[in-house]
Amino acid sequence: MAFPIDRPRRLRRTERMRGLVRETTLSRGDLVYPMFVGPGRGVRQEIRSMPGQFNLSVDTAVAEAQEAASLGLPAVILFGIPAVKDARATGAWSEEGIVQQATRAIKKAVPEIMVITDVCLCEYTDHGHCGVVEGDAILNDPTLDLLAKTAVTQAQAGADIVAPSDMMDGRVAAIRRALDAAGLADTPILSYAAKYASGFYGPFREAAQSTPQFGDRRSHQMDPANVLEALREVDLDIEEGADMVMIKPALPYLDVIRRVRERVQVPVAAYHVSGEYAMIEAAARNGWIDRDRVMIESLTAIRRAGADFILTYHAKDAARLLG
């Protein structure tokens, strides 16, 4: 009989003791702050379903990046909202696209912060899908060239990391070849390797104005019931040249994060998505939870599952608490 010799509470008596034996750490350096950038000047429009988050113009995005850097965050990730959308997502791969403009401005003003750019077409297409559309079909192979062009122009604008999120087959290889051919062999790829067709993306689609005009994204994003498929997707992306892989969403997929972390030898990221953020904010505003405590607990759980770093809309607030 172990009791009373074994008393686990001995190591929980004080905060100093708990800190000494803590198994999982969460720091500012583990967090990446997402930002939505669109046209105009002086724009800082709050997103209705994501209180505390904003649609920004390039100048206000620079100010946000400066604040993020001052809080010790290592990186931001940019999502673009173009002034004009079309069927070929021209705004995604144009050298004067909104993300390209914001990247140049941020790297000039805040060179110490890393800029990650989302490589996808859904925010830029008039139909709201992640690829070239023919009838009701989203065409895989014709999309790859557009994704590759997007990644190249983003990297040429100064992106430190490009992050394809489209879930088209073969897109990592296409992007790697295009980057290398453009003399950008040192630009790493953070692949959204296991991106699920999740109901937790609703607030993001409002923010990015990327709701599909017909159908849904289940033909390319993953079935939430599958984990072996996620491992296959991760393996394929690494074989194609991904330097890092991501699981999205995070909290409902902690088991996937753990399985991937145990399987691969590259950094693993997780995206604490808009719906996860919105639920915490809504519950806190109703007085049902302690916002700061639940926020830190949630992010710690994602780290405990095995994520090396986390993309989260709570990054700035968490950084303030973590000190």
Secondary structure topology:
Blueprint: H1 15-21, E1 31-37, E2 44-47, E3 50-56, H2 58-70, E4 75-80, H3 90-93, H4 98-109, E5 114-119, E6 132-134, E7 137-139, H5 141-156, E8 161-164, H6 171-181, E9 190-195, H7 202-208, H8 228-240, E10 244-248, H9 254-263, E11 268-272, H10 274-285, H11 291-305, E12 309-312, H12 315-322
Parallel strand pairs: 1-3, 1-4, 1-12, 4-5, 5-8, 9-10, 10-11, 11-12
Antiparallel strand pairs: 2-3, 6-7
Helix pairs in contact: 2-4, 5-6, 6-8
Main features:
323 residues, alpha/beta, TIM Barrel, 10-stranded mixed β-sheet, two-stranded antiparallel ribbon, 12 strands
What would you say this structure looks like, in words?
With 323 residues, the chain is of the alpha/beta class. The protein has a single domain (25-322), classed as TIM Barrel (Alpha-Beta Barrel), CATH 3.20.20.70. Helices cover 40% and strands 19% of the residues. The protein contains 12 helices and 12 strands. It has helices at 15-21, 58-70, 90-93, 98-109, 141-156, 171-181, 202-208, 228-240, 254-263, 274-285, 291-305, 315-322, and strands at 31-37, 44-47, 50-56, 75-80, 114-119, 132-134, 137-139, 161-164, 190-195, 244-248, 268-272, 309-312. Strands 1, 2, 3, 4, 5, 8, 9, 10, 11 and 12 form a 10-stranded mixed beta sheet that branches. Strands 6-7 form a two-stranded antiparallel ribbon. A hairpin with a 2-residue loop joins strand 2 and strand 3 (50-56). Helix 5 (141-156) crosses helix 6 (171-181). The radius of gyration is 20 Å and the shape is globular. The model has no long low-confidence stretch (mean pLDDT 94).
